[in-house]
Write a structure and sequence with these properties.
149 residues, mainly alpha, 2 domains, 66% helix, 0% strand
Length: 149
């Protein structure tokens, strides 16, 4: 058993740091404006401050409670990093559908209980949903399919 709940302390302080950095960057680079005439920096500054406050709300109580040791599992971290890199490398050459499908199927490998059939069905559903929202619904200029060869 640990003397403090370091998992929540680190997570809370990380959220506080990320929120503070976002708010400071947005305030320095964008006009915030006023409440009645909001500028482009109002939303990122507000969200950064809210994120920092949530981080403090998570970290503060953790200083006063005991923590449990948590086993370190690197598989999800490695697999999800590979999935994100796969999306980044595939979106331009092969298009949205194949990139989302591949990313989803790879991301399911982070959990050992997901079967290949369920991963393929989830990949197809996510590809269809993503195409429906971003291409059909919002009309974003992203290629659905591409063949780089």
């Amino acid at each position: 058993m640990l003397d403090r709940d370091f998992r929540d302390i680190i997570a809370g302080l990380g959220l506080t740091a990320a929120g503070s950095a976002a708010a400071i960057y947005a305030a320095a680079h964008y006009s915030v404006g006023t409440v009645t005439r909001m500028g482009p920096g109002m939303m990122p500054v507000s969200l950064g401050v809210i994120l920092a406050a949530f981080g403090l709300a998570i970290a503060a109580p953790a200083f006063f409670r005991r923590g449990e040791t948590v086993p370190l599992n690197l598989r999800p971290l490695i697999v999800l990093t590979i999935a994100i890199l796969t999306f980044a490398l595939m979106i331009e050459p092969v298009g949205l559908i194949a990139a989302v499908f591949s990313t989803t199927v790879i991301a399911t490998l982070a959990e050992s209980r997901v079967s290949l059939g369920k991963a393929l069905i989830l990949g197809a559903a996510m590809s269809l949903l993503t195409w429906t929202i971003f291409i059909a619904g919002l009309g974003l200029p992203i290629r659905s399919f591409g063949w780089p060869f």
